[in-house]
Amino acid sequence: MDDNIYKELEAPFSNKDVEWKPQLSGTDRNGRQYIIAVPYLKVKSIVKRLDSVLGKSNWQNYFQKSDDTYICTIALNIDGAWIKKSNGAGPTPYEAIKGGLSDAFKRAATMWGIGSYLQEMQTQFVYEVKQSKNKLVIDEQAAMPKLNAAHDNLVLQCFGNTQQSNVVPLSKGNTTKGNIKYKTPDMKQFVTGKTYALGDCTVLSVKSMPHPKLPYTILGVVSKNGTLLNVYINKITNLTPNTLLKNVIVNVREKKGKKSLLYEYDDTLNKAS
Questions:
Q1: CATH of region 180-272, choose from 2.60.120, 3.30.300, 2.40.50, 1.20.1070
Q2: pLDDT tens for residues 63-122?
Q3: What is the pTM of this model?
Q4: Which single residue of 4, 66, 184, 218 could bond 207 by disulfide (Cβ 3.0 to 4.6 Å)?
Q5: Does 3.30.43 match the CATH number of domain 3-159?
Q6: Domain limits, the chain
């Protein structure tokens, strides 16, 4: 099979192509309710990907049922030969048959690499929840900025900087001084010597870099308005995803004509979001 076809099938999606489904729900030790949300591609987005990469007449899918499992097979016409891959799913609580067929199709698509990067997503605890018909559901209006940012950060980690992601990567050659430093491509909007309030930010990802001479941590964080940032901390930290960084501020420094941003936060007020 042409490697280019695999690459096109495995390419990342926009966060608009992703839907989030509740997997588990519970109450934390502070009495706050949460839902663990899992990302899935929308069926129409998978179909669009297959159509665009292979052509509408060069792929097909069909279903079988084995006991309580719906098995979907997706076959691709590669150089005149039909190659098949299958996966299955059980009935869903809501619209059992339709949901089972849909989930089986999505899982079969991952066998071809379509959306398989979503399996690398860290556990997403969603505290933006509400009651609907005596059931705890995700408050999409409140939760989607954070979930979209989590998806975009995952795309950056898996594929690097692409047009699908609004994460601004750290510039090469940056050094870490002070607590946290982040290099932004547009420094004209910042005035040297001033301090800007960024507010509270939620940690989406934590990557420790235990360098023997200069250990540091890379954080992916999202602000309340949905702005996604990558920042350095010049130490190995015990911060975890879904930690809330309180009162984040940005100090603008300048040295030898070059501006840099120093991020700080109140470490004593950190708590799970």
A1: 2.40.50
A2: 999 888 999 999 999 888 999 999 999 998 778 899 999 999 999 999 999 999 999 888
A3: 0.61
A4: 218
A5: no
A6: 3-159, 180-272
